[in-house]
Amino acid sequence: MLTNYNLGELYYENKDYPKAVEHYQRAHSVFPSNAKIVYQIGLTHQKAKNFKSACESYEKAISLDPKYRKPYINACILFEKLDDHGKMIKTMGELQANFGVSSKALNVLSVLYNNFPEKNADIEKNFAQVSSIDPNNLLNIYNQAVYNYVHNDLDKSAQLFAKILADNSLKALKTHPIRIFAEISMSLILERQNQLKNARKHLINVKRTRVSCKSDCFRLLIVFMVS
Q: Do 1-100 and 129-227 share a fold?
């Protein structure tokens, strides 16, 4: 006999999110202190684009089990989407406090801090911390490249993007999101530097992958890499 949680999973997999939430909530009423169930309720709300309800569930899951990592990242992404930057920073701070300094958490925090010019010093500190933990962390290198591009240090930005494109682990992965974004970014830099021939080469590389790039791809990339 299937439990309510199992039924919730079945409805979730079939994208019947209202039914999934109904059964997850029944499971939660039986196991009120189970953070995983509450997280799953949040994830289902998120899939249904009920972002505020999802955030409430993620916050509840964190309160039930502060050592359960998954709700923190999802909550931060949604708080950013809802422009609730205060809660976003607070939740990321709690993540770092409970799990220590990790390259994944710092990478996400660097991206989220980009909304706040007053956080530039914190962003640069995060870059340095990740580099000390993992000097070849590609997402950190990418974040630094974007940061320098935004601040019009095109030479430094191009140097970092070139480092990504030269990375042996990505050479065979032509459709890897970081590689595609690096190719696009290099084309933008070279175009601004009036090196149109070289800029076209990078765009041709992207075209050959036949990958469609959407405006929210980078946010999805962050979620993929830290979850």
A: yes
Q: Which residues contact 37 (CB under 8 A, 6 or more apart)?
A: 5, 24, 27, 28, 31
Evaluated on CA atoms 131, 62, 91, 97, the torsion sign reads negative
- Distance between CA 24 and CA 155 in Å, rounded? 52
Topology of the domain covering 1-100: 1.25.40
Backbone angles phi, psi at 31, to 5 degrees: -125, 75
Domain ranges of the chain: 1-100, 129-227
Structure token digits, residue 177: 């999101």
Considering the entire predicted model, what is its pTM? Answer: 0.58
Place of tokens 């309160």: 63
Range 129-227 classified under CATH 1.25.40? yes
| Cα of 11 vs its chain's centroid, Å | 26
Average confidence (pLDDT) per 10 residues, the chain, 227 residues = 85 96 96 96 96 96 93 87 83 77 62 64 81 85 86 91 84 71 88 90 80 47 42
